[in-house]
Amino acid sequence: MGKIRIKQIGEGFEEVVKLKKKKVVERENPPALEMKDEKNGSRKSVSTGEGKPTYSSQIHGRSARYKKARKRIIKEAVIIEDAVEKVKQIATASFIETVELHLNVEKIGIRVQLKLPHPLSSKKKVLYITSDTAKAKKEAGKQDGVELMIKGEEAISQINSAGSAPDVDQLWAEPAMMPKLATIAKIIGPLGLMPNPKHGTLVEPGNIGKKLQSLLEGNVTLSTEKKAAVIHSVVGKTDMTDKQITDNVKAVIEAITAKDIKSAYISSTMGPSVQIKLATV
User: How far apart are CA 138 and CA 157, in angstroms?
Assistant: First the structure.
């Protein structure tokens, strides 16, 4: 009986060893996931790596509308006029999108001021959110070319409750209000309304008058990010003419000078970017 029991125990031990070896092999060589190829309907395998699923960059994190627009993009760099035309063609969002220029420059610290040939709109609607509405109203005075609404923290609650962004061209805010604005970032962000120091839309109550005057004159200040040699600039809206946007793009590039720019891309709020051929500027 003792010999039989030893044999049974030995067989059981061998089975346990086999199972452990199988698990080790599976961890080292995880099974592949099958994913459907969108182009031809066939299925393809994608390694899971360490047991975690991975996703093809072509299908992860982008909307169907964006993917469709991306297929229409010109892959090589093109002249400004063609880039502007293409960006407007693929700007299919339900609202008027902002046209942005993104520049990779030679060094951090570049800062320029310029006047755009074509300001973004003739009659601007601006919402300014501040903790000191009294001071802001006093500094703002009356500006004929701007429809300015000055509100306090209640504006954030109203936007949150409505679940939609206000009908304005720009949304400015006092820097101290930024933590509270984070609660509505998902609502105003996709529309390009989130206050941003790169766009000069973070304004102290005491500087609101100067900011309004600068806006009316079409003046903008552009500078690199603190830790990256990159400059972002708003150069138009998709309801502007191709020539107006093109003129604004050229004005920005000329102000910074083409020799200080490594590469340039133009895009709309919700669309993919198109590279600009700098040699033609």
Answer: 24
Mean pLDDT by 10 residues, the chain (281 residues): 46 51 51 43 42 39 58 75 92 87 94 87 84 94 86 95 91 95 92 84 93 82 88 92 96 93 93 88 67
Overall pTM surpassing 0.70 (yes/no):
no
